[in-house]
Amino acid sequence: MTESSARLLDVYDSLLRTDAEMQGALQVDRLGPLYLAVFPGGQGFITSARCSGGESTPVAELVGPALEYFTARTGISEVEFKTRGHDSAPGLHEALLFHGFAAGAPESVMLGRLENLVSNQPPPQGVQVRRITTRSEVEQMCAMSAEAFGEPYSPGRARELAARAEIDGGIELWAAWAGSRVVGAGRMEPVTGTEMVGLWGGGVLPAYRGRGIYRALTDARARSAMASGHSFAHSDSTEHSRPILERQGMVKVTTTTPYRWSRS
What we know:
By secondary structure, the chain is of the alpha+beta class. The protein has seven helices and twelve strands. Strands 1, 2, 3, 4, 5, 6, 7, 8, 9, 10, 11 and 12 form a twelve-stranded mixed sheet that branches. Strand 9 (181-190) and strand 10 form a beta hairpin. Helix 4 (135-148) crosses helix 5. The longest helix has 15 residues, at 213-227.
């Protein structure tokens, strides 16, 4: 790891975990080192500060009690347990699978300056990038994202995003349109009390990749974030988007893998 990426990893652990991840939550409780959050739309979320492996109760032993916290709530339909590649949590992967969580694809955690993300290039011909606000548009965005990432569409996810955008005016949802069809999307979330914003959910339909749509979505969100006084961005990126962000000066500091549980 280079000195630059090591410094940025410290920034990530100190500013962008736990409290920053609770923005928009309806309720937050603690279970040892874990944070348990209930979000609008029936979404549960579990995260922690950096795990050293020396916790008094191993994180792996808390998976069952953490899941029970959410299953006791009838309104919770899905739970995500967020893990990081640089944490030391022996047995956590096996414990998550045992309790019915399924591992998603690992993603790269990227950090960098917003000014480097502004490309000064227009969107591709025939594509319009704009901020979306209505529930219908949010549903279209979520359906597109599910298709882009090869995942089942989750109505709960659409409800959560729409509700969070209404509750928290700082969250911005952006979409790329080809005619009347959403072909790419992403959101921007300021991190309260910092110069940082998160760039989340960036994705483009396979048939529309390689045309500069992801770049245009990143450009639009970066411009909006800079206009509101922010200087840095972080993003959990797939292997489709990581190279684009690296070319624009962002640095990979670690990996993150989401584990998801759904109520049957």
